[in-house]
Amino acid sequence: MPLEIVTVPCLADNYAFLIHSSDTGKTALVDAPEAAAISAELARRGWSLSHILITHHHGDHIDGVETLRAASGARVVGAAADARRLPRLDLTVAEGDRFAFAGHEVQVFDVSGHTIGHIAYYIADANAVFTADSLMALGCGRLFEGSAEQMWASLSKLAVLPPETMVCSGHEYTAANAKFALTVEPGNAALIARAKSIAAARASGTPTVPSTLAEELATNPFLRAHLSEVKAAIGMQGAGDAECFAEIRARKDRF
Known about the structure:
It contains nine helices and 14 strands. The protein has about 260 residues and is of the alpha/beta class. It has a single domain (about 5-255), classed as Metallo-beta-lactamase, Chain A (4-Layer Sandwich), CATH 3.60.15. Helix 1 (about 35-45) links the parallel strand 3 and strand 4 (about 50-55). Helix 4 (about 150-160) crosses helix 9 (about 240-255) and helix 5 (about 175-185) runs antiparallel to helix 6.
């Protein structure tokens, strides 16, 4: 049976994700913004946690870890490079590591930029990558600790995954991201159509996360900084890819 992925809204605009194996009964959680919403979803489905996968150290991604660990005995996984800022880890991982969850391989990517030591988890069998605040729906995380070069390198790693991959990111920022993206590529037909569908989804209270990597490649300005048409749109023909990404990120910060 395929793995089941459930999006759990948390706090004001965060998302956590449950990954459930009906074959084994095991359930993993990616990030724990708060315990209450996640515990309620687990109880509703009759699931119990076996693993908690942490992407980075910010409180709105880890504040529920200890409560959930105490309730379930779940094994906590996180970046070795950031262990000093994370809850106690039972398994530390780094770029290129692979580990098993319920008989399925989980691949680890270092996606530093938003923070140093931020990681993403890719499960090919689930056709999903859990990116938190690195690659986001129509956006990417602010560069609180890392450089534009680091974030561009991180996004470039994710961009080569299969286009049908679901991008499970950490926040409901998509409507605001769409407004900004249209200032970069106002003539992008795929972006215009996506912005309309996002507005409709939010009007009905429907999450816009996860998205697909194909959607992001066609519409996300942060993934498109290497394209000649995007460089022309921001007046940076001939500039390097990371330099163009940095300009787009700076414009978003001022938006």
